[in-house]
Design brief:
Structural class: alpha+beta
CATH superfamily of the largest domain: Bira Bifunctional Protein, Domain 2
CATH architecture of the largest domain: 2-Layer Sandwich
Strand order of the largest sheet: 3-10-11-17-14-13-12
Bound molecules: adenosine-5'-triphosphate
Distance between the termini: 23 Å
CATH topology of the largest domain: BirA Bifunctional Protein, domain 2
Mean pLDDT: 95
Length: 434
């Protein structure tokens, strides 16, 4: 639908109403920067993660999956430069004491009360906690602010156990934590989020070619999760804005309802991380190329995909409204392969004569498709619900079914209905789901 009609209020309200995403700790008034995924949100997120993992890890012989611990030795973050430089510029209003990210406020005035803003200072975004029974500086640990370092510290393990040939990469999906000064825009900027990241190790002289390759892979991925080409924009990050580890970064920006903002990024991290870890840990992280009799620290291309921002971009792209019989129908036109529920089985009434036919249909189809059986409320309300959660097909079992052994299959997008023989259903749906 036209972009202007998709507002964050609508997307957020649907996500809550239909059980995708709730405010974190809601009954206690919430906790800023946290969100809880409900049953349908979990399912949507799982479909995205499974698709990503299959494409970038399982289907490739040059990729290795890892799942590193969230708590890591704090020396990791010293070596990686995060203790010193993983900061955002912070300003505080002298009047109302609210804090803001300096690069997100215009002029010298507080966006809330127009009070005078104080001196800018650097604020480290890592969450600190302590491990063990004694709380002193030696027990300090950080919750990881990116999944990347969990892969760098496992580089040697992978080389030693799998002897991969260069180039190769590690992939990881997991939580990251950042004490964002101003979490905002629903699940766009949160303090706890999930990342899907790749660290791809290459020979130093080949980095440009691999950068281009992964840039294309990321574009393909965005197309395959249903994002529209016109909503995606590449931004070459100017050298003065590059992160401390990067020689080149391209941000993939997406047109969210609240503006054009970073969705993903691809960075050339050079040998920054491995070289620093080698120095700090005194463990050699050189790669030995037996064939070419070379020994070197690999360079790294890092494609990074924020999972929560992926979910938000999918919800914003899929949300649609149309007028049907004088009423507004809202519908999530999710790509079928990502829809949490593929088929809903809806007997017209709760009467046993219908459930004896409908239940076996559910039992057969659930072996192949994620199905939902729903016999509550009026059929109109049930269609509205399935439309709003993006279910591609609704099967209605009516009193005719008892005689003709056929059901009505309703298409989410066109609302067209087909009469299909029960025994033909798996074949019919398989074809439609392609
Ligand atoms: P931003 O400039 O928006 O703060 P960033 O450049 O710091 O993001 P990266 O460090 O490149 O982000 O993190 C990689 C990816 O992780 C981002 O592209 C984004 O998808 C996701 N991400 C980063 N910070 C957050 C956050 N606070 N909430 C949700 N997702 C995030």
């Amino acid at each position: 639908m036209e972009k202007e009609k998709v507002t964050m209020e609508k997307v957020e309200s649907l996500a809550k109403r239909r059980g995708f995403i709730y405010r974190g700790s809601e009954i206690y008034g919430g906790l800023a920067g946290t969100w809880d995924y409900g049953p349908l949100g979990v399912a949507l997120k799982k479909n995205v993660k499974d698709m990503w993992w299959k494409r970038f890890v399982e289907d490739r012989s040059d990729m290795y999956g890892v799942d590193a611990a969230i708590l890591m030795n704090s020396r990791v973050w010293e070596a990686a430069g995060h203790v010193a430089t993983f900061t955002d510029p912070l300003v505080e209003c002298e009047k109302c004491k609210k804090r803001f990210r300096a690069d997100q406020v215009d002029g010298g005035a507080c966006p809330d009360c127009k009070g005078k803003l104080g001196q800018e200072r650097q604020f480290n975004m890592m969450f600190k906690t302590s491990a063990g029974a004694v709380e002193d500086s030696s027990s300090t640990v950080y919750l990881r602010p990116e999944t990347a370092q969990g892969m760098f510290v496992n580089f040697k393990n992978i080389v030693d156990s799998f002897h991969p040939r260069m180039p190769f990469g590690l992939g990881q999906i997991g939580k990251a934590f950042r004490n964002e000064i101003t979490p905002r825009d629903f699940i766009f900027r949160t303090r706890e989020f999930e990342q899907m990241e790749i660290e791809y190790f290459v020979k130093p002289e080949d980095w440009k070619e691999h950068f281009e390759y992964w840039r294309e892979q990321m574009t393909e991925w965005m197309k395959d999760i249903g994002l529209r080409e016109q909503d995606i924009h590449e931004l070459e990050v100017p050298s003065e804005d590059l992160a401390h580890y990067s020689k080149r970064t391209i941000d993939f920006e997406f047109d969210f309802p609240f503006g054009r903002k970073e969705l993903y990024g691809i960075a050339y991290r050079t040998d920054f991380d491995l070289a620093n870890h080698q120095k700090e840990s005194t463990v050699s992280l050189e790669y030995i190329d037996e064939a070419e009799k070379q020994k070197f620290i690999p360079h790294v291309i890092e494609p990074t995909f924020g999972l929560d921002r992926t979910i938000l971009s999918i919800l914003c792209t899929s949300y649609d409204e149309e007028a049907v019989d004088g009423e507004v129908r809202s519908v999530l036109r999710l790509p079928k392969h990502l829809a949490p529920i593929k088929v809903a089985i809806l007997p017209l009434s709760k009467k046993e004569e219908l459930s004896v036919v409908a239940k076996p249909i559910f039992d057969t189809l659930k072996k192949e498709f994620v199905c939902q059986y729903d016999e509550t409320q009026s059929i109109g309300k049930r269609y509205r619900r399935q439309d709003e959660i993006g279910t591609p097909y609704c099967i209605t079992v009516d009193f005719e079914t008892i005689n003709d052994h056929a059901v009505t299959v309703r298409d989410r997008d066109t609302m067209k209905q087909d009469r299909v023989a029960i025994e033909k259903l798996p074949e019919y749906l398989r074809e439609k789901m392609k």
